[in-house]
Amino acid sequence: MIFRSKAPLRIGLAGGGTDVSPYSDLFGGAILNATISLSAYATIEILKENKIILQAIDRNEAQSLDFEKELQLDGKLNLLKGVYNRIQKDYDLPTGGFRLTTFVDAPAGSGLGTSSTLVVAILGAFKEMLKIFLTEYETAQYAYAIERDDLQLAGGKQDQYAATFGGVNFMEFSKDDKVIVNPLRIKPQHLHELENNLVLYYTQTTRDGATIITEQVNNVNKKNKKSIEAMHQLKTQANMMKEALLKGRLDEMGEILDYGFKQKTLMASNISNDAMETIYAAAKKAGATGGKISGAGGGGFMIFYCPGNTRHNVIEVLKTFGGEVKKYSFVDYGLTTWSV
User: Is the pTM for the entire model greater than 0.85?
Assistant: First the structure.
């Protein structure tokens, strides 16, 4: 038997960073995001030999291990091992060999939630194999616990919920890891227009998001007023973006993104850099009215809102910086599993 799953990556539109504890615990966070047609995939194949074979095709990494109830977290394929270890602990997998193969449509550290989405996809494959029933909320929280508690990886909460639920969502975060996902009913013409006007650009760089997030966490713990106020403003930005999108006032979104870009750089020191500031200024000069650095910042993907017919000029300018404009579409599905 073969058990498969896929989960969509996401674009964060507003409120990024307010889903990270302790800010979300103390003040409550809010984020608006949307899933796109780039995904993380996981496949489990049952083997006759008593081996565990782990393969991350996109990273060109593989390990062949003897079957063990707990795999050593040695820095190699830890996301795959972490999900296996938790599933084994909670559901007592039967002794037997299998091959776990993964693939992600975007590089790790590029700002589209790749790591968390991959954890959700791997969890989905094991759910399919073992016929484990978990609600969407339970699945997302389970994936979050694996990353934050078991693997001790720094990060927020939005990515696991986006990957599990799918669609355009306004998410609210509060203490005790409470999350409320509010699906937004966007008119199709507004979503098509947003898709047309929002350019997704890969800078051909990646970053260690955990380092940036750790600084952000420290700023909250130290009661850094500038950083905390920036997060307050980003939470306000998420509500502004939600209203503009629901009411079809799409051309306000560029200005709202621009407002958020300036605030986000105040949360931690390495969110932006000279190269990204130069790209941002050039895109605005070419016709974009705003944009943002996707994910924790420091590199990876950027998005730009290009009203009217300006996207073509903006794309031509972006190409001069050596990056890649990535084609995508919005999708309304979340974690999907099946077997063959």
Answer: yes
Residue 310: CB atoms within 10 Å: 19
For residues 6 and 54, state if they share a domain: yes
Are 275 and 291 in a shared domain? Answer: yes
DSSP 42-91: EEEEE-SSSEEEEEEGGGTEEEEEE--SS----SSSHHHHHHHHHHHHHH
Q: Is residue 335 part of a domain?
A: no
Number of domains in the chain: 2
pLDDT at 323 over 70: yes
Structure tokens at 162: 């986006």
Q: List the domain range (segments joined by +) for residue 248.
A: 188-325
Average pLDDT score over the chain: 92
Cα(333)–Cα(136) distance, rounded to whole angstroms?
Answer: 12
Q: What's the CA gap between 237 and 249, in Å, rounded?
A: 15
* Confidence band for 207, pLDDT divided at 50, 70 and 90: low
Active site positions, annotated = 159
